[in-house]
Design goal:
CATH topology of the largest domain: Aldehyde Dehydrogenase, Chain A, domain 1
Number of helices: 16
EC number: 1.2.1.88
Strand content: 15-25%
Oligomer: single chain
CATH architecture of the largest domain: 3-Layer(aba) Sandwich
Active site: 293
Pathway: Amino-acid degradation; L-proline degradation into L-glutamate; L-glutamate from L-proline: step 2/2
Largest sheet: 7 strands, mixed
Distance between the termini: 49 Å
Organism: Chitinophaga polysaccharea
Domain Aldehyde dehydrogenase: 57-512
Radius of gyration: 25 Å
Length: 543
């Protein structure tokens, strides 16, 4: 049982396609975008391997083109959530007992299907459903998801190979079992790769899963499910349901077979889940595994020795790629006064070159934020800044939702390091800058460390190696992913395991072996070849 005889060497990361003008991939992707726009998708749930349609539907519309209907998905109720749990538990024994190499083959095949047959499907769905430009979709929904599937097979084969030593006359071994029950995967809108990884990483370890994606990611989520089914995933192993989060939580967290949650989303929701699980702890057959990655208030700390162009590029990309809707997006920057004028002028000039519009126009760097609720929240932060004489908007500040949820990349400058947009997560294209005295670097490090409850990502930009060393050491608890002379986004599977601590989550590092350990339960087995036949030890004998 899962002995690790199947070994899968560390793969190379999936190559990123350029989508340059005239390229074959650009032509193919545009064709798929047009195909999705020309049809109205009818998206079912998948429970026990069957498509389930309820007739209670919600429209799917591109955030950048809200008048166009991509399709609709069927919403489930309590009966569907319970059916998903029942289907998962029914599939559990057979799936857990499947040879590891057979399970691995399913996910490796899914990776190949995504890399070839379905590459443009998954990218186009992400572009239209989540308003990502072609490059952001490629590095997320194609490359990162493919990497998750391939690397997790490699990591799991490495875990299974880890066995204890054996003393003379004794054979020891460890079996890595799945958890006893089902795992709930709750996935976000902002990364299709995360939506695919959270249920599959648990399933790869032999677990069965109930998967609830964000409503605003359903269009791409259902393609992942189709790929997994085509790759040979047995019925009931992963069950995809669309129902309200509180409803799913109430049912799953009250079930005695609940064995774990794999979550990416807001800190408040995660803390509520943790509290509910704690209150129900007496109901469960086993102590549930709680794994979550939540918010971030990610920083870029610029030292007086920094290269201005490096700092500007790190801020432009880190803050405004995918409209600042990455958990890792730069949202607060600390700039020394000796470089402030140059950095601000160059950064503002860069923002003026950023085109904003639909994802189908490949010349647009900026697209729409995910939905009206997010739009209104971000706009309120911008309006408050406009009305506050203590801060000023030095770039952007405009927004419009008549055609789509468009918000200009916006830079706020403040003289208060504790101004609200330096402290609270916004999850949009808003960067706040604070200028500090260049010779007070150690003081500003303390400010960076103590300003936010989060600790997801951060970056230091400096040519002075002593400054890099100081920031790295002093900010040891401030970011689970720390970047030197780079933007604080763009973690690559197998290269930078991703996750943060404090209010940013449990830091279980998606894209690494650490995460997979959370979905395994080890059993130690000792066999003695010549067992003792007398309880008496030598020390009991008289001299």
């Amino acid at each position: 049982m899962n002995t690790g005889y199947f070994e899968y060497a560390a793969p190379a990361n999936e190559p990123v396609l350029s989508y340059a003008p005239g390229s074959a991939e650009r032509i193919a992707l545009k064709k798929q975008l047009a195909a999705f726009k020309a049809e109205v998708a009818d998206v079912p749930m998948y429970i026990g391997g069957k498509e389930v349609r309820t007739g209670n539907t919600v429209d799917l519309r591109p955030p950048h083109e809200i008048k166009h209907k991509l399709g609709h998905f069927h919403v489930g109720d309590a009966s569907h959530v319970k059916a998903a749990i029942a289907a998962a538990l029914e599939a559990r024994e057979k799936w857990a007992n499947m040879d590891w190499e057979q399970r691995a083959g399913i996910f490796l095949r899914a990776a190949e299907l995504l890399a070839t047959k379905y590459r443009y499907h998954i990218n186009a769905a992400t572009m239209l459903g989540q308003s990502k430009n072609a490059f952001q979709a490629e590095i997320d929904s194609a490359c990162e998801l493919i990497d998750f599937l391939r690397y997790n097979v490699h990591f799991l084969s490495e875990i299974y190979r880890q066995q204890p030593v054996c003393a003379p006359g004794i054979h020891n071994r460890v079996e890595y079992r799945p958890l006893e029950g089902f795992v709930l995967a709750v996935t976000p809108f902002n990364f299709t790769a995360i939506a695919g990884n959270l249920p599959t990483s648990a399933a790869m370890c032999g677990n069965v899963v109930v998967w609830k994606p964000a409503n605003t990611q359903v269009f791409a989520a259902q393609i992942i499910m189709k790929v997994l089914i085509e790759a040979g995933l047995p019925a009931g192993v992963i069950n995809l349901v669309y129902a309200g989060g509180p409803l799913i939580g109430d049912i799953c967290f009250a079930d005695p077979h609940f064995a774990g949650i794999h979550f990416t989303g807001s800190t408040g929701v995660f803390q509520t889940m943790w509290k509910t699980i704690g209150e129900n702890i007496h109901k469960y057959k086993t102590y549930p595994r709680i794994v979550g990655e939540t918010g971030g208030k990610d920083f870029v700390l610029v030292h007086k020795s920094a290269d201005v162009d490096i700092a500007v590029t790190a801020l432009a990309r880190g803050a405004f790629e995918y409209q600042g809707q990455k958990c890792s997006a730069a949202s607060r920057a600390y700039i020394p006064n000796n470089l402030a004028a140059d950095i601000k002028s160059k950064l503002v000039a860069e923002l003026k070159t950023m085109k904003m519009g639909t994802t189908e126009d490949f010349s647009n760097f900026i697209n729409a934020v995910i939905d009206e609720r997010s739009f209104d929240k971000i706009a309120q932060y911008i309006d408050n800044a406009k009305n506050n004489p203590a801060v000023k908007i030095i770039a952007g500040g405009n927004y419009n939702k008549s055609e789509g949820y468009f918000i200009e990349p916006t830079i706020i400058e403040t003289t208060d390091p504790n101004y609200v947009t330096m402290c609270e997560e916004i999850f949009g294209p808003v960067l706040t800058i604070y200028v500090y005295e260049a010779d007070k670097f150690e003081d500003i490090i303390h400010t960076v460390d103590t300003t936010s409850e989060y600790a997801l990502t951060g970056a230091v930009i400096a040519q002075d190696r002593y400054a890099v060393e100081l920031a790295t050491r002093k900010l040891v608890n401030s970011a689970g992913n720390f970047y030197i002379n780079d933007k604080p986004t763009g973690a690559v599977v197998g290269q930078q395991p991703f996750g943060g601590a404090r209010a940013s989550g449990t830091n279980d590092k998606a894209g690494s072996m650490l995460n997979l350990y959370r979905w395994l339960s080890a059993r130690s087995i000792k066999e003695t070849f010549v067992p003792a036949t007398d309880y008496r030890y030598p020390f009991l004998k008289e001299a």
